[in-house]
Structure formats: C-alpha cells, structure tokens
Design goal:
This protein is mainly α. It has seven helices and two strands, in the order ββααααααα. It is globular, with a radius of gyration of 16 Å.
Amino acid sequence: MGRLAICACGYVKFWEGDPVGPGNSQHLTDWYTFSHLLHGFWLYFLLWLVFRQLPVGARLSVAVVLEAAWEILENSPFIIDRYRAGTISLNYYGDTIVNSLSDTLSAIVGFLFAAWVPPIATIAAGVAIEAGLALAIRDNLALNIVMLVHEVPWIKAWQAAGQSH
C-alpha cells in the first residue's frame, strides 16, 4: 500500500506529542496510541461475548487479526480521505509501518489488561483515557468514530479551536 517503514524524517521517536503535526502516526507512539489500547479493551469484551468458550489465547489471536485488519483498512485511501475530509486530521496521510505495528502491540496490551484485571478497572481506565484524550487533544476514540461515520460540524469546530497549528 506504499506505506513508509519509518517516518520520512529518517528516524524513529518513542513519542510524538503533536497530534496535528507531520510526525503524528509516523513514530512508535503518539496520542492515538491510547485509542489502540481502547481497541484492545473493546476487542476483549466483544470476543468474550461472542467466543466465551474459547481460551483467552485463541481470542487474543482473533483480536490481533482484527486489529491488523483495521490497520490495513485505516491506511487505505478510502479511510485516509475520510479522515482528511470529515475530521480535523488534514495532515493525516496514513501510518508508517512502525506506527501500525506499535498500534497493534498497543491493542494487544489493552486486550491483555482487560483479560487480567477486574472489569471495573478496565471500564475506569477506558473512561479515564477517553476523558484525558478529550481534554488533552480534543479527540478520542468515540469522537473519532462519530466523525468518521458522520461529520458533526460543532465537534469539528471544537476540535479545530484546539489545534496548535
């Protein structure tokens, strides 16, 4: 799909803190890494509902396949164009391979967290992540989904008002 292995800048950083800058989704982790942890929480819950009889390891394998499928879809021209048209992510041109692998690893960590802690801890962590992202970058998993499905002008305006560029 033409994805770069690493950032066009020529190096890999552990953390990219500018959610609207050119390094976002190009390095190992960024603000959206937290959304991928949430993917893991949700994948654990959904696969527990549907495939409760399967061992956790088998459900984890399915979760990895689903997350990897999302990474491929997320980096398709259709989704990239949708992000750019319907959200404030005007500088989003897709993830690097290193970022996609890190996102998948983050989902695995989220899945394992949800598998090993009491459900209330996963729920509390999920709410904290969503609220923290909304406060820090005016975006989170819920807003991302809403804006991908249907652009909401007041959300887009609120998000744009928080951009540093």
